[in-house]
Amino acid sequence: MGAHLTEPIRIGIVGAGNRGRNHAARYDRIPGAEIVAVADVDEPKAEALAERYAAESYPTHGAMLDATDLDAVNVCVHATIHADIAVDALEAGTAVFCEKPMAGDYADARRMADAADRTGNRLAVQNQLLYTKETLAAKALADAGALGDVYHATAARSPGLAFGGDGDPEAVPLGARRRGTPYVDGYGTPAFVSEESAGGGVVLDLGSYTVGQLLYLLGSAASSGGGPSAGESSTGGSSALEIPRVERVRAETFRTVPDRFETGSEYQRRIEETGYDVEDVAVAFVTLADGAVLSVRTSWSRYMEDESSALVGTQGGVRLDPFEYFATVGDVEMRASADLEEYLFRQQYLRGERGRAAYDAGLWADPLYHWVTDLLGHSEAPPTADIALESMVVTDGIYRSAELGREVTREEIVEAEETE
């Protein structure tokens, strides 16, 4: 996969539900992307989505891989079955783009990464926080050494982007909510609050965004002189970014939503209907191999003012929501804002014709756009699978630490998952 491909890239989508329809609409706007196949065990759904894009439909991903010549497979199903589909697709010779979280647990995520390494095929994982103007600007500050040695980061709440059915990005906060429990509060499906289908609750749903974003920014700081780091092996990308290695995790999780509502309310009915067996609040403290620490706050429903994601170093700090830079200049303590829209405009236009077109069409924000342009060899996307894999060490560590009631080491997290 790479620069030898010529447009268009032939894409097969696995999962014709909400996410599959969403991704299909977004691909339809991206130059060089062509949806040629859709697979879903719900055959009428697969047929309906395939018909919309003049594609073929299949009852299983295996049937689709056997019958269709594909360049890439897009996985849009529940996290607990990501790994089996992704591994099959990678071994069949296609690149794979997977919805977040990478998998239901670290062991499955590791299987996916190993398959990408073994086959040499590209693997990417959704995380739109890596492409926001706040992340781009924070990365620029870290890479320029404006923060010095970064020793503390907070993964809490960051401006993000959601993509509607037409593919247009809409600004939304991601990471921690005061109120917004899937299905219970009226959006999403019951699968979001079932451990069997989702693999977990808010830690996997929202925590995967902000943890991945902060590991990416910490990696940027490390590679520009902010201290040593050690990441996992590459999963098909060529980026030189070194991802910080997680060493220890201490965490607690909480299930607070069932106690929030009165008996007999529509909210309680929805809670009882789903069985609601996942966490909706989590708090964690992560120690990295270079000595830096990462605080994690994630919630669907929490009675507290929102807390911004941030990076703090020996020479400066940056807060992401709202974006502000803190430093000392001439012995004056500075608190500076930034014109992020102008920065984004300039950065996109410096990319030439493609960058200008992406900016004008709003495609710059979409991970699928960066995935397609990377496969075509036009640009290099961040190593999202490597970031997602290390994020799974954090998320699994949160669950294991909360279960055991103590700090857990990387070895305990990784070895336990790989043997269970």
UniProtKB/TrEMBL annotation:
Superkingdom per UniProt: Archaea
Pfam families xref list: GFO_IDH_MocA
Keywords: Oxidoreductase
Family matches, as Gene3D superfamilies: Dihydrodipicolinate Reductase, domain 2 (3.30.360.10), NAD(P)-binding Rossmann-like Domain (3.40.50.720)
MF GO annotations: nucleotide binding; oxidoreductase activity
Keyword flag 4Fe-4S: no
Record InterPro entries: Gfo/Idh/MocA-like_OxRdtase_N (IPR000683), Gfo/Idh/MocA_oxidrdct_glycsds (IPR050463), NAD(P)-bd_dom_sf (IPR036291)
Coiled coil: none
Ranges for domain Gfo/Idh/MocA-like oxidoreductase N-terminal: 9-126
Protein name: Gfo/Idh/MocA family oxidoreductase
